Each structure stands twice: as structure tokens, then as C-alpha cells.
Amino acid sequence: MAKGKSRILGGVALATLALTGCAAGSIPGASTPITQSEAQQGAEYHPQLLAEFGGTYQGSQAAYIESVGKNIAVQSGLGNAREDFTVSVLNSPVNNAFAIPGGYIYTTRQLVALMNNEAELAGVLGHEVGHVAARHSQRRQSAAQQNTLIGAGLAILTGVLLGDSQVGNTLSRGFLQGSQLLTLRFSRTQELEADELGIQYLTGAGYDPRAMSTVLQSLASQNALDAQLQGAGNASIPEWASTHPDPQSRVQTALTKAGAGTGTLNRDVFLTRIDGILYGDDPAQGVIEGQQFIHPDLRLSFSVPQGFYMVNSPRAVSINGQSGKAQFSTGPYSGNLETYLRSVFTALGGQQQALAPSSIQRTTVNGIPAAYGTARVNNGSSQVDVTVFAYEFGNSQAFHFATIVPAGQSGTFNAMFNSVRRISTSEAAAIKPRYIDVVTVARGDTVQSLANRMAYDSGKVERFRVLNALGPNDTLQAGQKVKLVVRSR
To answer: What CDD domains does the annotation carry (predicted)?
Structure first.
């Protein structure tokens, strides 16, 4: 989470990574060049998207990724030159890729780190180009109001919550999104079309088209691992929390569509070029360590209860669990904590319904001035309690939790409310980022010995295998390049 405010993106549909396959020959408009109107639309939303997803990731790795993306995009025939496309690497710890009209294609650095060769990178970006080529966004404009990019933290900051007139349903839906999830779902036919186009672009560029299937397998394995690791805290990642829902069901489909095609993978080149890329949370946006969130720049920390997991973004931290949802965020502060708290309630209600706490209580949490209040809201046939708990950090900034739980269960998050604290200079300095370190397997190295070098306290072997697309029985060969996640290089 970082400081700042932003706008909800309305009226533009985002093409997310959900790969499948279809017949390319019958795809309407797939070779029509980018129009001036599409270029203008993309140019309008591009800076907003960058802000929402942590900005661009800079450096030699990003330059390489951009080059591969432009090369594969040219295969589409949408533009005559590489300069007709804008390929951005987003500074986000979420596995995601998407595109908007006008030749704007995006991938997160986290998703790139999950890949294991250049063909997989070209396949993911080619799939997104396929969505643009087939004008899927434009063909889904009728559903844009329900399917716009939205995160609950962003909604809290802007006071805009999409949904029906029931605030309870609106809040619940907003919290379920997580802070960096793209909710647009294309039809199965459209996903099949984008996949087929991506495979076509791979083949045209000389890549092995089967890479589409292998990157899907890595996504499926990562999703399963995430659920397993969260399960250790009695939490699970439901389907709606995945930016790539159910990729496992599409692995075989993509492999079948690719056929027996051959081509280059450029594995060693790819691994060498992404060596050193940032992995996981960027400390400038705060980091999640187990059940604890720590922000070294804002000098604060809090912990979530067992059974809940966090998703971090530049705008907010989403807290999700079966018994409630929450967001931790900030907003404009005039120096009056009660006014701030009421403004958060007003923003949560939006234009749908006036929302205000029954009362406001003042308190102190670990020496920090705080205030809180709860509003009971009708949620169809039941009721929910919406609580805002705000904290004053000096005279110029405030932070807050906004939570939603079944009526009468507002105590669910009491421990979290009381865990907010300032951190010391030494604690802040101890927060170190993680990086991808590409190493060459030496004689005698094993999965276990290399996994022991991973910068995690648990699941080292499982993380190592998923990161390197290794099955449970796969072994290593001397001279092979593999990825590690380390604290320093």
C-alpha cells in the first residue's frame, strides 16, 4: 500500500489472462489495424492503469520484456511497426497480464518471474494482443458497468462502489474483489479466440506454441501452492480471489490446439535476462510476512487473525476470510479524526445509501490516537455490521480499516484493530526485498539443497518446484539454470 488517490476506470474493458483455444480463421476483425479512436482510448486509460498497479518496473529486465512483447505484437498485423504497441511491466506482486484497446499490453513482474522461457513470455503477451485484435473489449461494452476494474480499497478512497442498491451487497462484492483483481470475464468463445491467436503469433515468430500450455500449468501450480500455504493458517483462496481462475482446466486444451508444433524456447536467454528481477512485495508499498503487514516507509505495522490472508496493492491492503472482509487504506486528512471517520462511511455508502455510524468512540491504540464506529446495514434477508477504525499518525495523515462482518460479529477484527503500531527505525531498515537469483546447478546440487537457499521460512521445496516448473518427481541436472528467491544478490 502506498500513499495517494486514484480514479476508477470506467467504460474500458480489460483483457485478462485466461488462456484457452479456438479457430483463428473465423475471428471477426482480428487483422484490422488499430484505429485512431482505439489509440485515443488506450492513451487515456494507460496512465491510470499504471498508477493502479504500482507503476512501471524499470531496468534491464523490463527493457527485455518490452522487446519480446513488441516482437510478438507485430505478428498480429494490428500495426506495422513495434512502435505501434506499448508494452509495460507493472511493479506488482500479483500474477497478472491484461490489455486495453489501442495496442497497450501489460504484464506484472511477478508473472514474468513465474515463467521459465521466452516462448512462455511471448505466449502470455500474445494472448493479450489476441484480445485486442479480436476487439473483445468493445464487444463486451454492454457489460462494462458490472465488469470494470475495481478494488475495494480504491472504492473506499474514491467513494465509488459499483453494485446494486444494497450497501451490504455492494460492500461485500467490493471486498471480495481484492485490491488488484480484474473482474471482467470474457465469454468462453472469446477466451478460445485469444488463445488461438496467441498460438498463431507464437508460431509466426518461430516460438514453440506449446509454451502456452506450460505457462498455464505453472499458473495452476502456483494457485494450488498459494491455497496450500494459506491453508496452514486455516484460510483458503477461493476462486474469486484468483487473477487466473482455474488455469488447470485449460492446460490440455491449449496443448491440443498447439499440436505438434516446434520452435524455440530461448530458456537460458530468458533466465539470464530476468536475473535480479524484484519478486514479491516491493517494500515501498509495504510487505506481507505471514500474518503481519509491515510498511517501512510509513513506519507502521499490523497483524491479521489466523484464518485470514492479505493481498497488498499500491492503494490498499485487502484482508479476506470466511468470517469477514476488511481493507486497510488512507485518505485526505484535515486534522479531525471524527470528520475523517465519517467521510469514510460516506464514501462507503456512495450514492446508493446514506451510511453513518450509530456512534463514534475515541480511544488510543499502542499510543496512537484512534476512533471507531459501526453501522448496521440491511443485506437482503440478513444484516451486516460495517466498522471503520481510524488512526491518526501525526497531524497530517490518518489510516483506517473498513470491515464487514455478519451482524453481531464485529469483534471478529478486534485483535487486528489493536495490533496497529508504529515501527522503529531499526525495524524499518530490516525489511529487505526479495529478488530472483538465477543460478547454475552444480554437481551434487539437489532440489532440497537449492531450495534451502530460498528466502522463506516455510514451503521452500514446494516454492522452488513451482517456480522452476518442476514436477514432484523431477530432478536436476548439472549445468541446468534454475531460479531462487533470495533477499540479496
So the answer is: M48C_Oma1-like
